[in-house]
Structure formats: C-alpha cells, structure tokens
Amino acid sequence: MDILDSLNGNETFSSLASEYGVGRSTIYDIKRNHEKIKKFVSTTDCGPGKRQTLKKAEHPEVAEALKK
C-alpha cells in the first residue's frame, strides 16, 4: 500500500524500485494490479503488511495450526 500511495504522489518507478529493493517491473505490476491489491487489503483479516502474497490459504485451519 505504501508503494501505491507513493505512485499516487507522482514518485517514479525507478525511485520506488531502488527504495524498496525491487525491479521496476515489480512496481509496474503493483500499479497494474492496484484494484486487486486494494480489495485484498480491505478484506483481509490480518491487515496490510502481514502477508507477502495475495493468495489466501486453501485450508485456513491447517495454515493456522502450522503457524502455532
């Protein structure tokens, strides 16, 4: 979400890529999928910054047991 906010603030792809240590194509993909990302963050139970993928566990009870 920080990257999306920065993109709305007219940051360049190159500056964001170097700031976050990712490629410019990753920043472009984030911008291209901004609606999907925003929807996921608004519906997830753990909030932004806790997950690294947009996929939810197929069997949440097993995922929770593995975490414990």
Number of helices: 5
Name the beta content range.
under 5%
Shape: elongated
Helix and strand element order? HHHHH
Assign a percent range to the helix content: 55-70%
Rg from alpha-carbon coordinates: 14 Å
Overall tally of domains? 1
The profile of the biggest β sheet is:
none
Number of strands: 0
pLDDT average, as an integer? 81
CA distance, first residue to last residue: 27 Å
Please state the oligomeric state of the protein chains shown: single chain
Class computed from helices, strands and strand pairing: mainly alpha
Stretches where pLDDT falls below 50 for ≥5 residues? none
Structural key phrases:
68 residues; mainly alpha; 0% strand; DNA binding
What does this structure look like?
Residues 14-40 form the HTH psq-type domain. With 68 residues, the chain is mainly α. The chain has one domain (2-67). Helix content is 62%, strand content 0%. The relative contact order is 0.12.
Task: Draw up the topology in text.
Layout: H1 2-8, H2 13-20, H3 24-32, H4 34-43, H5 60-67
Give me a quick take on this structure.
The chain is an all-alpha fold. Helices cover 62% and strands 0% of the residues.
